[in-house]
Amino acid sequence: MTTDRLSDKIYGCLLGGLIGDAMGAPTERLHYNEIIEKFGPDGVSDFEGVGTDDTAIREQLLDAIFKSEGRPNVDNFAQSFIDFKEQNRHLWFVSVRNAFGKYEQGLELPVYAGWGNMQSSSTAMSISPMGILNACNPRQAAYETMDVASFIHNGLSGYCRDAACAMAAAVAEAFEANATIDTVIDAATRYLLPVSAAELTKTIAAGLDLANSSGSYEAFREAYYAQFQRTLLADSMETIPATLAILKLAEGDPERSIIWAANFGRDADTIGTMVGGVVGALHGASGLPPAWVAKVEANPDVKYKAYTERLAGLVRSRLSEAQGRIAAVEALG
What CATH architecture is 5-330? Predict the structure, then answer.
């Protein structure tokens, strides 16, 4: 595998997402006090395995990207659930199974399958490949994700689709050579619809304010539980603000960010995978703890080096197309 900076960032995003998912899996659904009781005062700081449904659906999206030659849409994403039904159905959350069931039974077209669906983070948690594909173009990442994510959420739960747009834009921004955790966090909301996504944007801002005023991770976590907890722990209105606030609080440090996400509790695997994808894209695989990288690379079932090469090729191909359009417009005089 080549070691250019683009490839390093792609590989880091994929690795970080898996690591955050796997580290957060044992603490999912736990209160932070239960994590302390079960794992000790320092909580979890290592991982085993290859993650949960977060990673599984992310790999479905990767397959859809490759099969569409880098131009995925809602139909391609829906098809990935048909293609991976036997392999992954037992992992899918209720919202995913509901959308898939309507599509599989011919009750809804893919673009309408997410209408009226229950809230969750089922697309936001797996959407980082859309950010990779649109490296350095967070606006386009958000717009393309709006289409893809509509398979699982739309209508009253459309803010969960907006949440996926936010995370895709954050990942895309992280590919900028001079990106910082602040520019990444800003990009997460900059390209959301100003009226339709206003509630999510407002909640993210409130979460970031809490991170800035809390003074410590422990104080933030306690206050967040008291102020931001939703009825359903997988609700994007809870997980996305928590993800961005943890990234802010940890100043984008890869190890600290992922460990804090994993020890947050609630939907810890989803928060961990989103945090991991962002810091992996921001710092590259070379910026992740070497022992964590080595552990993933020791698993023969993980194909991320091959995926990285294919994704880098698609990113460069899309760039060439954009350059061709620039030349065509310039030729008009």
Answer: Orthogonal Bundle (1.10)
